[in-house]
Design brief:
Cyclin A, domain 1; 2 domains; 274 residues; Cyclin N-terminal domain-containing protein; mainly alpha; Cyclin-like_sf; 0% strand
Length: 274
């Protein structure tokens, strides 16, 4: 059984809330980096990791998660942006987030839970900016300025490149596997909501599951790519913790099937030269 249990979910951070929050960050990234999202995938997974980490800290410390979700999303992206080459100041980041927020309202998409901002809200820009800066200082102080340094997509790209070098006879299958694995990374992060999971374990489990999903007959018989790819993962990983997580992905996908998770598989094909 997966470690995910809906009965353990915390208020305003249910699976539905996490999907909405991920989509919110995803749509922000699309506006920042059109037409490709893949190069911001490390940024996205980092921002979502910060968001999950902050919300759990606020809730578990009984400080009450009174930081509204819009402010938390912007703050998480702002902190993540400092670790990547996303050259945007806070004013620009807030402006784009507000564009996405207003689009959600106009399309009658589910608003972010636990936010003081409602439909047709007239935003006080400077107040929101002040809230974000205060939130950033507050949360970074709580975590002791311990930045998240490892991200699932960094390991994902590393392993995909290793596999790619031995896949000349199976490029169509390789691309299909890569696309599916990219989605599985997001599936694990959103569904499991466990920021203590090692980034490498998430990436390896996602790739392993994607390889396992493809029938053996889809691979060229002469090189036995499927077996090679799996063995490559085993060689690169000392532990086997990713195997259990890999088996649970089907359950996670089933849980997510009722939601519109923004994770088009094409993201793994854009500008990717693995």
């Amino acid at each position: 059984m997966s470690s995910f249990d809906e009965s353990d979910e915390i208020p305003f951070w249910t699976l539905s809330d996490r999907v909405t929050a991920w989509n919110f960050l995803y749509d922000f990234a699309k506006k920042v980096n059109q037409p490709s999202l893949f190069s911001t995938s490390p940024f996205l997974t980092s921002a979502f990791s910060y968001l999950s980490r902050f919300y759990h800290i606020l809730y578990s410390s009984q400080l009450k998660p009174d930081k509204d979700m819009l402010t938390l999303c912007i703050t998480s992206a702002f902190i993540s942006r400092k670790q990547f080459d996303l050259r945007m100041n806070l004013d620009s980041i807030i402006t784009i987030f507000l564009e996405v927020f207003n689009e959600y309202s106009s399309q009658e998409k589910k608003p972010l839970s636990n936010t003081k901002y409602g439909k047709n809200q007239v935003f006080q820009f400077q107040q929101l900016k002040s809230d974000v800066l205060s939130c950033e200082l507050f949360l970074l102080t709580i975590i002791g300025w311990d930045f998240i340094m490892e991200h699932p997509f960094a390991h994902f790209i590393q392993y995909i490149k290793l596999i790619r070098h031995q896949s000349d006879n199976d490029m169509a299958t390789f691309r299909k596997m890569r696309s599916r694995a990219a989605r599985y990374v997001i599936t694990i992060m959103v569904c499991e909501d466990n920021f203590q999971l090692e980034a490498e374990t998430i990436a390896t489990a996602a790739i392993h599951r994607a390889i396992s999903d493809i029938p053996q007959e889809n691979f060229s018989a002469d090189v036995e790519s499927r077996n090679f790819w799996i063995k490559k993962l085993e060689i690169e990983n000392d532990g086997k913790s990713y195997l259990k997580l890999s088996k649970e992905i089907a359950q996670m996908e089933e849980k997510l099937s009722k939601f519109a998770l923004q994770a088009e598989e094409k993201i793994a094909n854009e500008k990717q030269k693995a």
